[in-house]
Amino acid sequence: MTEIKNNLPVIQVKGISKSFSGIYALKDIDIDIYAGKVNAIVGENGAGKSTLMKILSGVYHDYEGQIIYKGEEVKFSEPKEAQDRGISIIHQELNLIQQLSIAENIFLGREPQNKFGLVSYGEMNRIAKLQLDKLHLVVDPSTPVSQLRVGQQQLVEIARSLLLDCKVLIMDEPTSAISDKEVKLLFKIIKDLTSKGVAIIYISHKLNELFEIADCFVALRDGTVAGSKQMKDVSRDQIIQMMVGRKIKNNFQKEDVTGDNEVMKVENLTFSHPVRRGGFLLENISFNVKRGEVVGVFGLMGAGRSELLEAIFGLHPSLVSGEVWIEGKKVEIKTVKNAINAGIGLVPEDRKLQGLILNMNVASNTSLANVDKILTNGFLSKSKEAELSQIFIKKLKIKVSSKNQAVKNLSGGNQQKVVIAKWLATHPKVLLLDEPMRGVDIGAKDEIYNLIEELCRQGVCIIIVSSELTEILRISDKILVLCESRLTASMTRKEATEEKIMKAAIPAI
Amino acid sequence: MNSQYVKETLLKFQSIIALLLMCIALSLLSDKFLTVDNTWNVMRQISVNVVISVGMTLVILTAGIDLSVGSILALCGVITASLIKFGIELPGINLFIEFTILGAILVSILAGGVLGWFNGFVITKFKVPPFVATLAMLTIARGLTMLWTKGFPITGLGDDFAFLGTGWFFGVPMPVWISAFVVVIAIVVTNKTKIGRYIYAVGGNEVASLLSGLNIKQIKIFVYTIAGMLAGVGGLIVTSRLDSAQPNAGFGYELDSIAAVVIGGTSLSGGKGTVLGTVQGALIIGVLNNGLVLLNVSPFWQQVIKGLVILLAVIIEKLNSKER
Description:
The structure holds two protein chains of two kinds. Chain A contains 17 helices and 22 strands.
């Protein structure tokens, strides 16, 4: 490893190994983290990033090896101990209590008290306001967190870490759910922090970001360090190669759809607002999907992207009106079962909360939407189930130690593949994908792209929602743009440009 | 690796090991414990708890709870007894229906099912938390029992009916046959059928289950209905054994049942646990009760010890799941 500066690293990770039921998630890792720098950690899902961060932040303590923090060996028995010593983590899934106010969240566990031993809300809100000002978040600190956007919630997490006077701040995919404007602000704050000597450990799949913000990086692959350099000494392709250990087909080019066999037609789909009278979440949406076609749905946060998929999938029968035709036949979709029977599958946005039964194994999750298929004389057949899951483990290259492994022990990318497998097992005609690439690394992304292509070749059509413009442009045959509940543009891949899409997506004030 | 294997095996069979240790200790401490009579005695005593705990297991697997089983048990017992003894008499329209024992039994199980179904209906239709809905049913069913009997037991039900609770069949007491039958069916249902798989799925992640096309309401109503029916079966055994339906029968049974489920390793947050575990839990409670009586431990201490054992079992379970 090349020395970065003469000063000593604030954290030295020495020979760390950690295994789960006999399988190594990390093997003999050596990493140095420097104060005043943005230290990027990259790697595919399952490479061991999360495990390493959990060790650094005190979640796991049964590991082999040493952590040297400010020159002395430490072993945190719980996250609070790590926090008290100055190591904070901002998780990808934010850890705020939605019902509590911003100030209450910031001070959670260390509330200032008045002389009667009661919580001093005045003091709390005053200090919280100061912290928020530093982060340019102009919101009353007594606002409940549930009323904030994701990006704003992230700033609240940062405010909490700042209050702890942290020396090392771990950020896990901090930009996965926030707008470009918020990203700029975040980067400004990060630079501010590093200039004060805070070490940032920055985990991200978005390599472009790393070139903008990071000073150095460590690439992990299959639980080992695959390489580590200064950002300025390395190219994008080199990093990717370190992460995956193979050449990636970088430019996915989907075959053009030939013929025009219409598989699905949606007409005047309207989704009334559940609370606001006369308001709409979707208004008069009409479009069609051809055999083997990928329809990309783009829109800003709150434009109605996920709602479109949910409406089609029969999740809100009392609020949704409009007509759906599949292969020329009008279908009545009032329940999820109706949707499945009509040949529709939905890979939801949040795989842990909406996609998987985490305690169950891969096989049971794969068969869940289609249990009838694994029955023999009315009873579940273990062998049929094993056979079914084996097909998809192979087809989707799901990395499992056995088919009986609980899905909660799989990496994000592999979990996503299990959700997809569940739907492929139902042989869908239309597959709805809601942000399928979120939190999925480059290698797994590539595999999912290939899978989409292959499904299209087999005649499946796909409606994919994504908040990443480049992704939409890359895989869609047709692009639908939603803005404030309305369909504002529909264009083919040839017609589409980033500007055109953005113009349609941004509300005209 | 080898020591890890040993450790994992120990964890897997922890309830059985605890049970065996208890049995060994008790046979050393009391010469009355390890006798044929006493063994059947214990088995017969736990049979009611096993039957209602099977229903409780299904409910808890869906992340629910059923506090009403004790009261439903009492009401069903009273219904059976009064049908056998008095039939249905409506003088106004000159109607009198006499019931055979089998008829009375079926009506009683059906009544338990209806009450359980009502629990499930209220929980799914109006989104009442299971704790509250079944707490209400606990009071309602107990009240109905008191209304029906005016607070007096119904006795003298005849030898044929008494066979159910006191008889022997192929050298095994009838209540043990009944509970074994219920357990076997439940094991098959939970492991081998679609509804069984769905029960685990709903308890494991309700949203994901909904998005996979499962009918959540149907599944929940099913488990509460079964829990009610099994409480009815429990009521039959109790009534038959005493040859009398007591209006305050089954008082506090829901707690023993929850204890058996929890000691058996089923998670109260749903999705994790087995029927066989619950049987082991019920056995541990049964052997403990029996042993403490044989050792002449005061009844007050018995309660304290039972409580501590429940705590211990859950603490061990928590420590294990943390380590894994």
